[in-house]
Amino acid sequence: MSDTLAVINCAQLVTLKGPQRPRVGAELGELGIIADGALVVRNGLIEAVGTQREIEPLLKSDCAVVDAGGRVVLPGFVDAHAHPVFAGTRVDEFEQRTRGVTYQEIAAVGGGIAATVRRTRAASERELVETSKRYVAWFLRGGTTTVEAKSGYGLTLEDELKILRAIRRLNDETPLRFVPTFLGAHDVPEEYRARRAAYVELIIKEMLPRVAAEKLAEYCDVFCEERVFTTDEAWRILTAARCHGLGLRLHADQLSRSGGAQLAAELGATTADHLEHTDAAGIAALKSANVQPVLLPGSVYALGATRYGAARAMINAGLAVVVATDFNPGSSPTPSMLTILSLACTQLKLTPAEAITCATINAAYSLKRGAETGSLEAGKRADFVIHDCADYRELAYFFGVEHARAVYVSGREAFRRA
Ligand code: NIG
Ligand code: FE
What pTM, to 2 d.p., does this model score? Predict the structure, then answer.
């Protein structure tokens, strides 16, 4: 079989071509669309991108052809914040919340993250892999080709390693590309509640060295929040993580203004995530260190809250904004980046073009994958999606619709709608 593939007849080939760095300001609105576009893939990499007229003469007779049928072709979405490996669901808590009990009230009586931790500890690595494959299929059919995956539902050395090994297996056994993040500081486990300092020590002295030695994670994250980890504890954990060569991410200012944005800036973190309660001083701090804000409107929506991150102020400040799902069983049970595009437009007030940039190339840079995915340019991996529309704005406008018709990772079909 030929190792060359041509994708022809793209009404809009949305390339995201641009500078080799995350996009800021007006650049967020520049999608590099080629009308009547086509592209050539060789050995899993994009070889050429152009108009149909430019590409046609390059095609050899043995080249496989995919006819996009006059549809939109986009880079695969890059979901830069997700918690996709866990056991069980929290549908019971979801129902309680419909009756008015809050997320924090549920957590205070042993539900929330702790409930998922109990179930995840009881599951084997293989069981977690099999459970998560269902979610992998959801990510792919939604047009996502790269996903960040956090641990954080184990909270013992062995259970955190088990989750990270499950993530590694998912990367090997499925077409979805994973970027692993160690989140041992997702919560203080129940057995350490009366001696939280000892848990912080466990993370620093035992978990981080093992995670780093086994190369199980590229990033370390901390849930910095009232009643979870303080900024001082987060500082200690992330400083230690940096010594082990891990990049830094931070759950910051989600439910209250905890100083997380300032901490992320002080540490030179790659991202600060959530930021629903971040004020102008926090935004200025993020800018001073060029931290990428990762906004997660799915969690605001699913918690029935109304306070979304200040996306426009962040763009005006020159920040390279990212949007992601925060897929998890508690606060954001959606793997759908298309749903996030809708929320980004209706709630964060991004234009459809800005939302797409935040969900592709900017997200890729936030995971150190900007040179290999997130845009359709020669030399990059052929991670692309044929969507069932002829105008890219429909992706954010018609919501709750499965627009993705065919999804390719490294030039290979990873999903096709029947
Ligand atoms: O990003 N904020 C902390 N972690 C998740 C929630 C995890 C859960 O509820 O299971 C989040 O929202
Ligand atoms: Fe999260």
Answer: 0.98
